[in-house]
Write a structure and sequence with these properties.
Elements lengths: L4 E5 L3 H12 L3 E6 L12 E5 L7 H7 L9 E3 L2 E4 L5 E4 L6 E5 L7 H11 L3 E4 L10 E4 L8 E9 L5 E5 L10 E6 L2 E8 L6 H15 L5 E10 L8 E2 L3 E3 L15 H17 L3 H8 L1 H14 L3 H13 L5 H7 L5 H13 L25 H4 L5
Parallel strand pairs: 1-2, 1-9, 2-8, 5-11, 9-16
Antiparallel strand pairs: 3-7, 4-7, 5-6, 10-13, 10-14, 11-12, 12-13, 15-16
Helix pairs in contact: 1-3, 1-5, 5-6, 7-10
Length: 384
């Protein structure tokens, strides 16, 4: 029996996958979570685990890192997309483009499923545990996003519509991003995302909701508002003192193009655990398995910001003519040629984290997009 112990700060997907992996390898694992449950910052909204960035299907990926599918995990393939003129395009794929999951405290959410797996593996979770100083020994820190590089504002609701998904590209309602509709088993999520102009989130959402009513015949019952944000950055040290490991969005692991980060989060948690088990280099593992796709994603984001509404329409027209979008997406996420290598340093200089809204002068504001005030995520930060 291995007597070594590991402390994990944060019970998000990255931290829980790390905990599951270590516990299955006979490590004594304690997870410190400042909340009284997992998934509390979510509202039962639907999200997607990407299935377009690698040849390996996301279902097989989860199996490869030891995660059982004991949560809502629904494949979504052929969908509809709308450009700024509300013209509809149908996209075809040979396999699921993504797998829909639920986030939050409901029984079949991803968060609750991972919690059950961790507890079954023997992980000890200390609820309401606020860590101010990193414990001795090996520690994995997965306290989630530090602030907002992109935000989402939307609603969850009940509906009689069939299972369905749709995407909307229009800078007038989703600046440099997209709006999306996800419907599954009588429930739905609709939201607009934005990579800039955060203070105008309500106005953008109202425009997006109007577009939804114009394009999709869907009933909306018992709507509840929600908001979210993602955080991504580069060049952060992934370890400290050869014993502290940063995972998930705490390490900046997030897709810069679409904001799909769950696959990165869980993979980073698994890699951190494996590095402890095998005595290997966690930064080297991330450099091999995660960072190349993140860098390509950043280049893709830089290109996307230059398209504008006319460009979005042209791209949708082009991909709607393809028999299968998957090979195109895999290629876009795996281009490590000389062109991208030369472009990357300039794109990194172009990228600036959108963490500070200079228009906000409130001393204790609660803005999603602002670093001021006392957010839940800031309360989980620890002194190293």
């Amino acid at each position: 029996m291995n007597s070594k112990s590991v402390n994990i700060i944060g019970a998000g997907p990255a931290g829980l996958v790390a905990a599951i992996t270590l516990a299955k390898n006979n490590y004594k694992v304690t997870v410190h979570e400042m909340k009284t449950n997992v998934g509390t910052r979510f509202n039962g909204d639907f999200q997607g685990i990407d299935n377009w960035s690698t040849q390996e299907d996301a279902k097989a990926f989860l199996e490869s890192i030891g995660v059982s599918i004991n949560f809502r995990f629904a494949p979504y393939s052929n969908g509809e997309y709308f450009d700024a003129s509300a013209k509809k395009y149908k996209i075809k794929t040979s396999r699921p483009l993504f797998y829909l999951v639920e986030r939050g405290t409901n029984e079949w959410s991803l968060d609750q499923g991972l919690k059950r797996q961790a507890l079954e593996a023997g992980v000890h979770i200390k609820w309401g545990s606020r860590i101010k100083k990193v414990p001795d020994g090996q520690v994995i820190i997965g306290t989630g996003p530090k602030a907002a590089d992109a935000i989402a504002k939307g609603i969850v609701f009940e509906t009689n519509h069939k299972n369905y998904y749709a995407g909307f590209l229009d800078d007038d309602m989703a600046p440099q991003a997209y709006a999306y509709l996800l419907v599954n088993e009588g429930r739905a999520t609709f939201a607009t995302c934005m990579f800039k102009s955060f203070p105008n989130a309500q106005e953008f959402f109202e425009r997006a909701l109007k577009r939804l009513h114009e394009t999709v015949n869907i009933d909306i019952n018992n709507p509840k508002e929600f908001g979210g944000y993602v955080n991504f950055f580069f060049n952060k040290a992934l370890t400290k003192d050869n014993r502290i490991y940063y995972v998930g969005e705490n390490a900046g692991f997030q897709d810069a193009l679409w904001g799909f980060g769950m696959r990165y989060a869980m993979h980073s948690g698994y890699l951190a655990a494996q590095s402890i088990i095998e005595g290997s280099s966690y930064p080297d593992l991330c450099k091999t398995h995660i960072q190349p796709k993140m860098e390509v994603g950043l280049i893709n984001r830089w290109m996307f910001t230059r398209l504008g509404n006319k460009g979005y329409g042209k791209v949708l027209k082009m991909i709607s003519k393809q028999e299968d979008l998957i090979p195109i997406m895999i290629k876009k996420y795996n281009q490590y040629g000389i062109g991208n290598r030369l472009l990357l340093p300039f794109v990194k200089l172009w990228f600036r984290p959108r963490l500070k809204d200079k228009q906000c002068m409130h001393k204790n504001c609660s803005c999603l997009w602002c670093k001021h005030g006392k957010h839940d995520v800031l309360e989980t930060e620890v002194d190293c």
